[in-house]
Specification:
- Helix content is 28%, strand content 15%.
- It contains 14 helices and 14 strands.
- Strands 1, 2, 3, 4, 5, 6, 7, 8, 9 and 14 form a ten-stranded mixed beta sheet that branches. Strands 10-11-12-13 form a four-stranded antiparallel beta sheet, covered by helices on one side.
- Helix 8 packs parallel to helix 10.
- The chain has one domain: Alkaline Phosphatase, subunit A (3-Layer(aba) Sandwich), CATH 3.40.720.10.
């Protein structure tokens, strides 16, 4: 048997609770539910940064975004030898990407890919040798091949876009104005199937990165998905941010649509949290949010069908048994929780990714609520593939822990956010029970008991009864920050001792379920 293949399926801005297999009682996702049943489901997998570019860089390298100089959306991520497609290409894999990548500003990415074109016609974009790029969101997705194809399919494209019909007061929630067969998710699925056929004809293992721009805002989807879910059947969001919950001032100001009470480096008041669009959110009603959630559920069901198409092709080509399939999202969306939409603030609905892993040696029907991080994905895959990690990869392989819960390698995950627009630098440590967030140079923070307060409504930061807990978590966060500094130095000889990747703590409260 040849070396195992890897199919990485990513979606954009999908909450962990969007899927049936992660507890959603309404949204129908039979294909992803079946994938989870055949493999392992990680219910507490947290993102290293709650916006697209830094998180995708962290996921693909196994490193914290700050170690990669990929700190926020809008940055140009430097190339790095730790990028998984580069590691796999050097190990003899054919590496390809279909869909969204977003390691540089989206409008610049096509030119950035083309700038790496080589004499043999392939590219070398962060290690990807073939790239079919589709960036953007909703009916404004674009790409070097997708855009001319879309215009050929839809001669009245601009007129259709101009005639969009809003569905509620929340901006960007409207009826899909284009023919359903032109949807970017369907196009990406078709191109991914073609890439699998091409890979099957090659005499080498493959890594295919299949990345969908949905269900990111705008909230729009074609029929029959647009009408599949009744807004009245959708759960109401969590109540809006109020002073009584002692939220971070940047969150309260975002909800009220006013400039944050912090200053940027140029001395001007910050305008917004990156990822949380600036609006007066107080005007939106629970009915508005139920409509948004119903449309989003339709977007998720369309994705489920498209991902099923790709998985069917994998099966038809006889590749399923020798392919690792991973599914994840780069972050979630408030979807009306706390009165907001978007991402950026460190609430659980934004920080938790629906991680699924299936493949040779991965236990079937396995579920763990032990804490994991998306930066653990790259080292885990390399471990299963039998390929050595590059120097200074910071994530932890979960392979041993998936086989034996007592070998789980971590009990906390760190999330970064360096937001130059809001003038805020924050770090969050999440354990199975606790979440602590510190804001650099500011006199407030957040501390939540996730067991007693899963909605994160009672901030214990100032509560004297939790002073010891706050101190212990602050010390643990400092340890994680120390170990998140880039440890690569191009040494000629290997060190005598292993480089510390994180600060392990005593294993607590881990629940693991697996079929006998």
């Amino acid at each position: 048997m040849t070396r195992p293949n890897v199919l990485m399926v990513l979606v954009d801005e999908m909450r962990a609770d969007a899927l049936g297999c992660f507890g959603n009682p309404v949204t129908q996702t039979p294909r992803l539910d079946a994938l989870a049943s055949a493999g392992a489901r990680l219910t507490r997998c947290f993102v290293p940064q709650p916006t697209c570019t830094p998180c995708r860089a962290g996921l693909l390298t196994g490193c914290h975004p700050s170690a990669l100089r990929s700190r926020m959306v809008g940055c140009r991520t430097p190339d790095d030898p730790r990028f998984l497609p580069r590691v796999l290409a050097e190990a003899g894999y054919h590496t390809a990407s279909v869909g969204k990548i977003h390691l540089v500003p989206q409008r610049e990415e096509a030119a950035a890919v083309e700038a790496t074109r080589r004499g043999d016609g392939t590219v070398d974009y962060f290690g990807f040798r073939d790239v079919e790029l589709v960036n953007g969101h909703g009916d404004f997705c674009f790409g070097p091949r997708y855009t001319p194809w879309l215009r050929a399919q839809t001669p009245d494209l601009d007129e259709r876009r101009a005639s969009r019909e809003p569905l509620c007061e929340v901006p960007g929630c409207y009826r899909w104005p284009l023919p359903p067969e032109t949807h970017a998710s369907r196009y990406i699925a078709d191109r991914a199937v073609a890439a699998l056929r091409d890979a099957a004809a090659r005499d080498q293992p493959f890594f295919l990165h299949c990345s969908f721009p949905d269900p990111h805002h705008p909230f729009t989807v074609p029929e029959p998905y647009a009408s599949r879910y009744d807004p009245d059947a959708m759960p109401d969001p969590l109540p809006p941010i109020t002073e009584s919950t002692d939220p971070p001032p940047v969150g309260l100001d975002a909800y009220h649509g006013r400039g944050a009470r912090v200053r940027r480096a140029d001395g001007k008041p910050a305008s917004r949290i990156i990822g949380t669009p600036p609006h007066d959110y107080t005007r939106y009603t629970p009915r508005d949010w139920r409509i948004v959630r119903a449309v989003t559920a339709g977007m998720v069901s369309l994705l489920d069908d498209c991902i099923g198409q790709v998985l069917d092709a994998l099966e038809a080509l006889g590749l399923t048994d020798n392919t690792y399939v991973v599914f994840a999202s780069d972050h979630g969306d408030y979807l009306g929780d706390y009165g907001l939409f978007g991402k950026g603030l460190h609430y659980d609905c934004v920080l938790r990714s629906p991680m699924i892993l299936r493949g040779p040696g991965v236990p079937a029907q396995a579920e763990t609520d032990a804490v994991a991080s998306l930066i653990d994905l790259a080292p885990t895959l390399l471990d299963y593939l039998g390929i050595d990690e590059p120097e200074a990869m910071q994530g932890l392989s979960l392979r041993a822990g998936l086989a034996d819960p007592y070998a789980w390698p971590r009990d906390a995950a760190m999330t970064e956010n360096d937001d130059d627009m809001a003038g805020v630098r924050m770090r969050t440590l999440t354990t199975r029970r606790w979440k602590l967030t510190r804001y650099a140079g500011l006199d407030y923070g957040e501390l939540y008991d996730r067991d007693a307060d899963p909605a994160e409504r009672r901030n214990l930061w100032r509560d004297p009864a939790y002073a010891d807990t706050r101190a212990r978590l602050t010390e643990a966060l400092a340890d994680h920050m120390l170990c998140a500094i880039d440890g690569s130095n191009g040494r000629v000889q290997p060190p005598a001792l292993s480089v510390v990747k994180h600060a392990p703590r005593a294993l607590r409260d881990v629940v693991f379920h697996a079929a006998p």
